[in-house]
Amino acid sequence: MSYQKKYLPLVLGVAIAAGIFIGGKLNFSDAPDRLFSTNSKKDKLNRLIDYIDYDYVEDVNTDSIVDVTVNGILDNLDPHSVYIPKEDMERVAENMKGDFVGIGVSFYTYRDTITVIKTIEGGPSEKAGIKGGDRILMANGDSLYGKGVLDGDIVKRLKGPINTKVDLTVLRKGEPELMNFTVKRGVIPIKSVDAVYMLTEKLGYIKVNRFAESTYKEFKKGLDILIDSGATEIALDLRGNPGGFLGIAEQMVDEFLGKNKLILFTKNKRGDIEESYATRKGDFEEGKVYVLIDENSASASEIVAGALQDNDKGTIVGRRSYGKGLVQREMDLGDGSAVRLTVSRYYTPTGRSIQRPYKKNGHKDYYDEYSDRLDSGELLDPSKIEVADSLKFTTPKGKVVYGGGGIIPDVFVPIDNSLHNETLQYIEQYQFFDNFVFRQLDLDRHAYDGITRQDFIDNFKVDDELVVKFQDYVNTQTRSKVTFVAYHDEVKQYLKATLADQLYNSGAFEEVFNQSDIMIDEVIKLSEGQ
């Protein structure tokens, strides 16, 4: 072998490595003398990982070390700069995109068998004839029942490339033989808009649960329905909405603000400012808007509330919002993982930042602030909200607003302690309402065949016997005994809303639940001038 051929792979390897090194250094803002400078901090980290990889006495998964290192670095930044591991990327991406490819069923593992709770409206399974209560026994000949089958495995078998087909074998109560269905996989929306309906003859209601890529289209469709139904006022419910894409929030606000009204502006570390203004395309610029927020309304939800409040357009109803005024950008790390890094701050039209402090007591205290608000009495009494005169701003019409930690509502509504107690939250968290209602429906689904959705919402009553059955069910699922004496009516409300959800699908839960919602009642009073 010649000298050149022998060392050619080595030379090529060195050249490629040098190219990667130089490429990693390239930054069009760098001066030429910095191009070949070393970064001792990066070198130190790389050397440590290499030492562990090659010389440490035991085999170590250095990928996990890198994950820990990345998280450790981000922990020294702000609470909203986060690492997304490779294994979580698909789920996170689906959630933010607003859809996924599948067969379109919500299912429950009941006695080791996959049982359909409900089909997604307009989805592939509904079109194929699958119904709530159906047991899916096999998919393409593979068994889906038994103790050894995990929910994750089931999902993988039911999901697949778009327009591919899956043959399902189904057991349906009342049918003498197994049934066969061929379902073509399609795009299944992950709904951002939970409910759209009229609260009164003039007041429409829209509940938005997050700001994904598909959210604006869903919202616009709902808004058009309400306008066609005669709505001249809108209650936009953003309670519990953690946020999402800033651009989607801007599009939503644009429906309410007139041309050239400032929606927000952002500022990065270099002091660069980007401003966002409303256009003339809004369809509800003349209507009245009420925005419902609470302590879990964050980020894009606060952008909407702040923009409308600062432009004297909306009436903000509820409790002080979360207080997140930072903007993240998702950046690929090259191995399937990513980091969401805070790249700028956003400011409402009057110039206020609503980001609450996070450097003083660490990330844990930052996320535990709900307990602090509860202990201080702020969730019950607006006078307990701490404000700073140095962060006082004034809207064009002279309304005083404050920065420094969330959007403070124009009309305060205290937390409803009857619904926010530990027992009910525990029961809801473990899906006892959903599972119990499914079992009840499974006994005789035809009992509700003659009841229309509106008749159920307006007139159906949950009797005491069902509450007792539910109490017995919960007590079979938990070690401690639970009684519902103190919140009997609240349990009835949850049961009726869950029944409506499983029987009638989209928006039925909210329409029932809102009948006893004190914040909804307050909005209706404001709308009627009371």
From TrEMBL:
The chain crosses the membrane at residues 7-28. GO terms for molecular function: endopeptidase activity; serine-type peptidase activity. PROSITE patterns: PDZ. The keyword Membrane applies. Keywords: Hydrolase, Membrane, Protease, Serine protease, Transmembrane, Transmembrane helix. Residues 89-159 form the PDZ domain. SUPFAM superfamilies: ClpP/crotonase, PDZ domain-like. GO terms for biological process: proteolysis; signal transduction. It comes from the Bacteria. One of its GO terms (cellular component) is outer membrane-bounded periplasmic space. InterPro entries: ClpP/crotonase-like_dom_sf, PDZ, PDZ_sf, Peptidase_S41A, Tail-specific_protease. It holds the Pfam family PDZ_2. PANTHER family: CARBOXY-TERMINAL PROCESSING PROTEASE CTPA, TAIL-SPECIFIC PROTEASE. Belongs to the peptidase S41A family. This is S41 family peptidase. The lineage of its organism: Bacteria, Pseudomonadati, Bacteroidota, Flavobacteriia, Flavobacteriales.
